[in-house]
């Protein structure tokens, strides 16, 4: 296993993080996503820890708290060896204040999560999204108190826009409050929008990036091709999330298949390895329902993609240039002495 610093902290986490979204869930969405019972959760957790993973991500809303309970039980005496990340924001009941990022909801939610996880502290406590009704001053003030009281070690955010993260950092600096050290966000070959604004911001601010749904909800697992679905029982067959743009995504699958053949690896392993080659990525969250799937994903840390592999994958998946990105790139071409601007790139296409 490989390890990397968690943002600008002195903590090291494994490049692969075990996602606990498949833990529990006896009905509805979470039954489709996972529905795993405790014995299978124990197997996945112990397999991960034995492979060197020291990072587990869950959330209070996963299976209405069951995921946290099962995670805590599976860890048992090994809790001290693991960096536990969980989240707050989602609705946890029918009450008017059982949702959001108010001080009231955060303070109640952290106590509930601590109890479910069976621990005295949470290593990384993340807001699960933006709350338009709770100002950052209130949210960050509450999170800072949790850190100072020893119930939380570090704080992070998830699913925020770049401007929202920067605003939060400004509030933290001005108010001498704890700042978010990580962003958890969707990033995959089939969803590279993060690269427009968020990735440059994270690199500039030295924040960690934790990737959720690295296989685009299973689309990049190799089970879906232009010819149809290989596995009708795959989660994505029942819950098509996150969205992918077809047919471009099928073009990506075909390139991944070719690389996988050359590397004697699976399509899923290649897709995960590509993410691990991206400089902004701290840790990739892998969720599994089967031990065989987990073991295959674990092998991504040892899969080295060469320059030609990366170029082929990038060429088929890269974003279409948008303003102001293309303007910034053009203006920066001749910024250094001895360089010139390539105006030929902007010449109209030749007539056929």
Task: Describe the structure concisely for a colleague.
Helices cover about 40% and strands about 15% of the residues. With about 350 residues, the protein is of the alpha/beta class. Helix 6 links the parallel strand 7 and strand 8.
Q: How many alpha or pi helices? A: 13
**Shape, principal axes of CA atoms:** globular
What are the segments in which pLDDT stays under 50 over at least 5 consecutive residues? none
What portion of the residues fall into strands of 2 or more residues?
15-25%
Whole-number total of structural domains? 1
What value does the Rg take, in angstroms? 21 Å
* Name of the level-1 CATH class: Alpha Beta
Order of SSEs? EEEHHEHEHEHEHEHEEEHHHEHHH
Protein architecture, described:
The protein is globular, with a radius of gyration of 21 Å. It has 352 residues and is α/β, with parallel strands linked by helices. The longest helix is centred in the last third of the chain and has 16 residues, at 248-263. Helix content is 39%, strand content 15%. The protein has a single domain (3-341), classed as Alpha-Beta Barrel (TIM Barrel). The relative contact order is 0.11. The strands form 3 sheets. Strands 3-4-5-6-7-8-9-12 form an 8-stranded parallel beta barrel, surrounded by 6 helices. The chain has a two-stranded antiparallel sheet with strand order 1-2. The chain has a two-stranded antiparallel ribbon with strand order 10-11. It contains 13 helices and 12 strands. Strand 5 (83-88), helix 4 and strand 6 form a beta-alpha-beta unit. The mean pLDDT is 92.
């Amino acid at each position: 296993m490989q390890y990397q610093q968690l943002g600008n902290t002195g903590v090291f986490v494994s490049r692969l993080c075990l996602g606990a979204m498949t833990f529990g869930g006896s009905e509805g969405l979470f039954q489709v996503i996972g529905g795993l019972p405790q014995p299978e959760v124990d197997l996945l957790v112990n397999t991960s820890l034995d492979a060197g993973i020291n990072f587990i991500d869950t959330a209070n809303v996963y299976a209405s708290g069951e995921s946290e309970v099962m995670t805590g039980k599976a860890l048992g005496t090994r809790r001290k060896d693991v960096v536990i990340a969980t989240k707050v924001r989602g609705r946890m009941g029918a009450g008017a204040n059982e949702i959001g990022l108010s001080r009231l909801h955060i303070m109640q939610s952290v106590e509930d999560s601590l109890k479910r996880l069976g621990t005295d502290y949470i290593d990384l406590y993340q807001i699960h999204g933006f709350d338009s009704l709770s100002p950052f001053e209130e949210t960050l003030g509450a999170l800072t108190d949790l850190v100072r009281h020893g119930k939380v070690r570090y704080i992070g955010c998830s699913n925020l826009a770049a401007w929202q993260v920067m605003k939060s950092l400004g509030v933290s600096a001005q108010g001498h409050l704890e700042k978010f050290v990580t962003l958890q966000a969707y990033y995959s070959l089939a969803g590279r929008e993060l690269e427009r604004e968020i990735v440059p911001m994270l690199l500039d601010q030295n924040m960690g990036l934790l990737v959720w749904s690295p296989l685009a909800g299973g689309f990049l697992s190799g089970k879906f091709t232009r010819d149809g679905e290989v596995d009708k029982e795959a989660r994505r067959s029942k819950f098509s999330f996150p969205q992918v743009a077809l047919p471009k995504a099928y073009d990506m699958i075909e390139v991944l298949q070719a690389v996988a053949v050359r590397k004697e690896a699976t399509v899923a392993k290649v897709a995960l390895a590509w993410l691990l080659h991206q400089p902004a990525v701290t840790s990739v969250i892998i969720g599994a329902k089967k031990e065989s799937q987990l073991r295959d994903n674990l092998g991504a840390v040892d899969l080295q993609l060469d320059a030609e592999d990366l170029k082929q994958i990038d060429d088929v998946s890269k974003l279409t240039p948008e303003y102001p990105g293309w303007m910034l790139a053009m203006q920066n071409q001749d910024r250094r002495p001895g360089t010139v601007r390539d105006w030929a790139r902007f010449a109209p296409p030749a007539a056929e």
